[in-house]
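Student: I would love a firmer grasp of how sequence relates to backbone shape in proteins. Thank you; the sequence and its tokens follow:
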Amino acid sequence: MITASLHNYRQSPRKVRGTANLMRGKSVVEAASMLKFLPKKATGPLGALLASAIANAKNNFNIESAGLFIKEIRVDGGVTLKRSMPRARGSASRINKRSSNVMITLAPIAEKPAKLRRWGRPAIVKTEKTQKK
């Protein structure tokens, strides 16, 4: 398992997951080129994380990046900074400044399943018996 992780990246997990979901299941080369053209703030740190995972594969396992795909990318919540905003009549409301923990796992393309549907479920292959006439 070739992994790399990014801890306490100061952007909310909800915003980072949108970019991460586009990368999931793609080859490393395709994901890296896709990150160059996406107009999202998270593309910079996710690109650096992908480059780190590729370097881990090359240095630790002697695997070239052309033969890898993104097996798993997970975005979890990190530390939340609690701040307050002054409001009317001397009260205050809370502001949560969220952060993200991102973990990426790469695997050789030989391990990639034949075809995955959306959400990682295997596709149903229709045979003559399952097709309606």
